[in-house]
Write a structure and sequence with these properties.
transport; signal; nine-stranded mixed sheet; D-Maltodextrin-Binding Protein, domain 2; palmitate; alpha/beta; membrane; about 40% helix; two-stranded parallel ribbon; 2 domains; lipoprotein; about 280 residues; elongated
Length: about 280
């Protein structure tokens, strides 16, 4: 009798222990994935931040923290495991070592144009490609040399970890090195916009998602910087927007990226914020 009671007690303990362990296993990943963090590209910040707010409103209990800091920072942090998603305007191979980039999974979520912008008191609205290069490399230093008023040109530039800078340098400046000594270094698109709006004679570059009445976008070779012109290949300065994960996305991370790629977001929020859905792009890189 005692022996049977002891066996039953042992069996009950074993069942309870297994049940407890299974509960921990089931709850562990989901509890961790109730909250994720995202950092990187300031160009992608408006979309990532607004989509995160919409997602959290639709999914109670989920918490998504979004910060900028530059594409290089986002890629480094997602590789190190400091964040769940690293946003970037450039491919990981352009910022990380080859062996590091191989560990990341690329999720291309949209495209975005990048425009040269000036302070609204600048009376120039079009530059040739060569004039743009000459301004950013310091060869042209006064707006009168490109048809404007006699006014000093002040370059507002970004640090080396900026994906927006890398894209602008590659496609607008044809790879030419900027005049670093003349540049004011700003690493947040919002700060760049504010600085240009407050600095007479200034010029910089912003993703379309930051364009408004505070700055004036310039045509390049007569082509207006619009999403339509990016999509049809007429306007050359643009980038894919990437959300990188370390390995395959899982849990809340995957759910959020899937939400960004859903028709609901692509057909509404993406275009509203002046990004271009991948399905609308008629050109590829």
């Amino acid at each position: 009798m005692k022996k049977n009671l002891m066996i039953k007690s042992i069996m009950l303990f074993a069942v309870l222990s297994i049940t407890f362990l299974l509960t921990l296993t089931a709850c562990g990943p989901s509890s961790k994935e109730d909250s994720i963090s995202i950092s990187g590209s300031s160009a992608l910040l408006p979309l990532a931040d607004n989509a995160a707010k919409d997602y959290m409103a639709k999914n109670a209990g989920s918490k998504i923290s979004v910060q900028a800091g530059g594409s290089g920072q986002g890629l480094t942090q997602v590789y190190q495991g400091a964040v769940n998603i690293g946003n970037s305007d450039v491919y990981a191979e352009e910022k990380l070592k080859p062996e590091e980039a191989k560990e990341l999974k690329d999720h291309v979520v949209c495209a975005v144009g990048i425009a040269a912008v000036v302070n609204t008191n600048v009376k120039v609205d079009n530059l040739t490609s060569q004039q743009l290069i000459d301004i950013f490399t310091g060869k042209i230093t006064n707006w009168k040399d490109v048809g404007g008023d006699d006014m000093k040109i002040t370059i507002i530039n970004r640090p080396s970890n900026s994906g927006t800078r890398a894209t602008f340098k590659k496609y607008a400046l044809k790879g030419a090195d900027e005049a670093e000594g003349m540049a004011l270094k700003e690493d947040q698109s919002g700060t760049v916009k504010q600085t240009v709006s407050q600095t007479e004679g200034s010029i910089s570059y912003l993703a379309f998602s930051y364009l408004d009445e505070k700055t004036k976008p310039l045509k390049i070779d007569g082509v207006v910087p619009t999403s339509e012109n990016v999509a049809n290949g007429t306007y050359p300065v643009w980038a894919y927007e990437h959300m990188y994960t370390k390995g395959e996305a899982t849990g809340l991370t995957k759910s959020f990226i899937d939400y960004i790629l859903s028709d609901e977001v692509q057909n509404n929020l993406v275009t509203k914020l002046k990004f271009i859905p991948i399905k609308d792009m008629k050109v590829k890189r």
